Amino acid sequence: MPEFKESEKWKNFGIKELKKEMKKQVYPDGVDFEASTCYHRLVFELFFYATFLVIINGQDFKEDNFAQVGNAIFGEEYLQRLYKMFDFVFYALKPNGRMPQIGDNDNGRLHVFAKQEVLDMRYLLALRAIFFKEPKFKIEEFGFCEEALWVFGEKGYKIWQDL
């Protein structure tokens, strides 16, 4: 929001708070401190989408260099924890793409882009594959998901196809 003289200050404050909260709420292994699979998803979405918006609005963003710009803005430690949050999802998902119900579940989500079962978290792997450009997280059986199209647009679909 360059039209506001304080916008740079607001952005820097937001980044600082995200980094502080990431350390506070997410263990170094990438698991949310609430110890609930569904709260993990909610907290992950809060961090991921905020991080994503900062990145795509950054000066150095060039359509697909998400992780590179993320490291420059947030630092390697922050992005590594975000990556490990994805790791937890990858290793905890059942083969059908559903997350085991562990701990509390209030169905909390930041954005619901497509209708799906509460424990269906396949879309998180597609977001990871595109954001980090990692073919091993492109699970062919799960296919490309509507969430990824809403988040990354056509460019995301192209990245997905090229993985």
Descriptive report:
- The protein has 163 residues and is mainly α.
- It has one domain.
- The chain is 57% helix and 0% strand.
- It is built from six helices and no strands.
- The longest helix is centred in the first third of the chain and has 20 residues, at 37-56.
- The radius of gyration is 16 Å and the shape is globular.
- The N and C termini lie far apart (34 Å).
- The mean pLDDT is 88.
H-E string: HHHHHH
| Domain module tally | 1
Gap between N and C termini: 34 Å
Give the strand content.
under 5%
> How many H/I helices?
6
Poorly predicted ranges:
none
* Number of strand elements: 0
Give a brief rundown of this model.
This protein has 163 residues and is mainly α. The chain has helices at residues 7-25, 37-56, 66-74, 76-92, 122-132, 146-162. It is built from 6 helices and no strands.
List the helices and strands and how they pair.
Blueprint: H1 7-25, H2 37-56, H3 66-74, H4 76-92, H5 122-132, H6 146-162
Helix pairs in contact: 1-2, 2-3, 2-4, 3-4, 4-5, 5-6
Key terms for this structure?
163 residues; mainly alpha; 6 helices; 57% helix; 0% strand; globular; Heparin-sulfate lyase N-terminal domain-containing protein
